[in-house]
Amino acid sequence: MSYVLLISGLVLLILGSNWLVDGASSLARRLNISDLVIGLTVVAFGTSSPELAVNLVASFNGNTDIAIGNVLGSNIFNILVILGITAMVMPISVKNNTVWKEIPFSLLAIIVVAFMANDVMIDGYPKNEISRADGFVLLGFFSIFMAYTFVLAKQSGPLMETTQKIYRLPLAIAMVVFGLAGLVIGGQFLVDGAVDIATRMGVSESVIGLTIVAAGTSMPELATSIVAAIKKNSEIAIGNVVGSNIFNLFLILGTSASIKPLQFNDHSNIDILVVMFASILMFLFVFTGQGRKIGRKEGIVLFLAYIGYTVHLLINK
Fold first, then answer.
1. Helix or strand or coil: residue 294?
2. What is the DSSP string of 26-70?
3. CA–CA distance from 15 to each of 21, 73, 205, 220, 300 (Å)?
């Protein structure tokens, strides 16, 4: 039954995020909101909505290891697996803005979280936690990133069509409602199933959050990046990964902590270091290929690094 809950939760999360994006995009078009704004808000939030739903449920239930593991695991999965597979499918071209601004900003995000989470080491407090105040600071960083994104988008023009169809108003509203319901119910199912599986297998909730939950909630990003690579829109692929990582740390972790402080275990520092290492590797690999591209060889290295990381998790479960 736990595996049924887990799989059902993943399916509902993916369907819910798709319905939410399509319905909300249709409503936005009816209000004459531009494709650019839709892409930067509705679509961006939509692909991160599974992580947000899972984190909110886990946070309310007190499963903070799953909440933190989901965010860190998703970021690791995004770089090492999604970027790795995408680069193996098609070498990824990287723009100057992404190299010198967005990738460093994603590295800054994980460094900020590392300082916030280690209260015992830095301030001598009795326990580590990402507090409500920390959550509000993370949301402040997120607002800065969104402001930067809007300025950049206005300079570069429309990025992509968000949906090809405008649905009738009742259907669009229904899609938004059912999409949100799918996210809420799917998030609950996924967390309940993951907690039960972790208990039965003797594996920590953190490991389940870092692997199964993180991989499952990252499926929208994986699909988006692979499709973009096949269509030779590789810039969308890396933008999707970097943007998602920033969303995860600043928006999702910030929102979760703002609602309820998240207890932080020392062993999660290893996962923070892996996120930092993966981010630095992504930056360095831009310069190892020809013409600022992350090539197939680099993609293989990224994917193998994830396999090594997963083996480490299972050995030290």
1. strand
2. HHHHHTT--HHHHIIIIIHHHHHHHHHHHHHHHHHHT-HHHHHHH
3. 10, 21, 25, 10, 30
d(CA 29, CA 168): 11
CB 283 within 8 A of CB 103: yes
| Domain 2-315, classified CATH 1.20.1420.30, yes or no | yes
Domain boundaries defined on the chain: 2-315
pLDDT tens digit at each of 317 positions of the chain: 788 888 888 888 888 877 877 887 787 777 776 655 565 566 667 777 888 888 888 888 888 888 999 999 999 999 999 999 989 988 888 888 888 888 999 999 999 999 999 999 998 899 999 999 999 999 999 999 888 887 776 776 544 444 457 788 889 889 888 888 888 888 888 878 887 887 787 888 888 888 888 888 887 778 777 777 777 766 667 877 888 899 999 999 999 999 899 999 998 999 999 999 999 999 999 888 677 888 899 999 999 999 999 999 888 76
What ranges in 165-316 are assigned the alpha helix state H?
A: 169-201, 205-208, 214-217, 219-230, 234-246, 253-259, 268-288, 296-315
Measured CA angle at 24 (ends 22, 29), to 5 deg: 95
Alpha carbon of residue 88 to chain centroid = 21
Cβ atoms within 10 Å, residue 127: 9
Place of tokens 């692929």: 237
Residue with tokens 């994986």: 222
**Cα 73 to Cα 206: distance, rounded to the nearest angstrom:** 9
